[in-house]
Amino acid sequence: MTTSFDPLQLTVFAQHVAMLAEEMGTLLERASISPNIRERRDASCAVFDAQGRMVAQAAHIPVHLGAMPEAVAAVREAGARAGDVYLLNDPSHGGSHLPDLTMVEAVAHPEESTRIIGYTAVRAHHADVGGMSPGSMPFGATELYQEGLVVPPVCIERAGVTQHDVRRLVLANVRTPDERDGDLRAQRAACAAGTRGWQTLWQQLGEATLSHAVHALLDYTERRVRMRLVALEGLRGSAQDVLEGDGLDDRAIPIVVQAQVEQGTLHLDLTGTSPAVRGNVNAPPAVARAAAVFVLRVLCDDDVPVNDGVARALRLTIPDDCVANAKRPRAVAAGNVELSQRLTDVIFAALAEGSRLCVATEGVLPVLPAAGQGTMNNVTMGAPGWSFYETLGGGQGASRRGAGPDAVHVGMSNTRNTPIEALERAYPLRVLEYAVRRGSGGAGQHRGGDGVVRRYQALEACTATLLTERRQVPPPGAEGGAAGQCGVNRLNDVLLPAKTRVSMQAGDVLSIETPGGGGWGKPGERRVDAATPPA
Fold this sequence. Notes:
Number of strands: 20
Strand order of the largest sheet: 2-1-5-4-3-6-7
Number of helices: 11
Strand content: 15-25%
């Protein structure tokens, strides 16, 4: 490989570094203890160069990956040295919400041990990091400190030597220390795998060639993204939706986005969005950035690599006092999961409106879907000795291409549901029903995807916390399609609010029916083939 790259060489390099991140993810999943990481794969891996630029990411969780560059930046600012390994979850220093513990290794030069040549990073959602309720996704939290242990960027391994006092401090503040220790060891192994891969690549290519390859890859990605945006030049649109309260106040929380494409750059302005609220649906700006990067990537062709080149074509404006610009000590547990979903919905809607209004872009955005379920349906259950967390899939929105898929994670989530066998083996819970919620997708020329039904029976007394959305305001359809059905939460036969914490006795049944996706096009109209050019 030379310092001048033809398309084939660049493609090979892009695939190589992407597979480094994928290998990290595979090792993490196989080595983890908790079902949340091992089975649900609620974790993400990425590789960065010596300047802290994301070179490649695995196809993991969008809300993790879009925010991880800020975690690496925080570690660099903390003074990381070659061979150091850092841990963090602080939303004001590169974190998203507290259960997402991020581990970052500063990759040492293979021969010059004091020189940093890159970074590897793993973010994993731990089933408990302390706080006021099992699972660390509490209902009713008004301060960050109520949600769990706050970890600023702190060195947990210095030049290959584990800092046992730091590890003991972390494990002393969680309800399930053995499981947490196992998952942290798995994260460490994943970072080490990425480090070995990056060092090997450095040795194979040499410093100059690898540096040129990274620059070429990021520049190529930026060009591809901007070329897509040039086709949308002049697009202007706006949209708004709401979060259904913060759990402490039922008043709707407006989310507003103005979108504009100008000179190959997507400008997103959140002016008009609600100020920060008392409850924990706030989020740090990194979460809004993650949502914007995800949408921008969706606009591009499938073969466009995902790295820092994508974000170069994005400009984000967030008011200082905003639910998407949380300042310490705002509570943020639900913001990472629920606000990120709503931001994604609203950004898509603003782009769709802009495409309809701009003659020059008519037909250029044929695949923008109707809204999907718009929530991660966060379910947390626990008692002394155990803590269970999962998110649940639902309906995806339909689009011009066809019906929305059923029972999938949408938007900023890309996890699996916990397999019943793994759940029942690990926890004193029984799953009485797990099925597609037939008929919950919105009608249309193309029908929205259906949600799921999941019924948990407690085998011992425990608490359950729900942080959900789309229980009052349904996922809207597009181009005349009908909205999907709202989700429903119940304890036994009692209807529960979208956000709540309840006590369960042995034999009690918690039922979750997740929302369907919105339909696309007016029902009964002629079906539009995906290959048919716009009129």
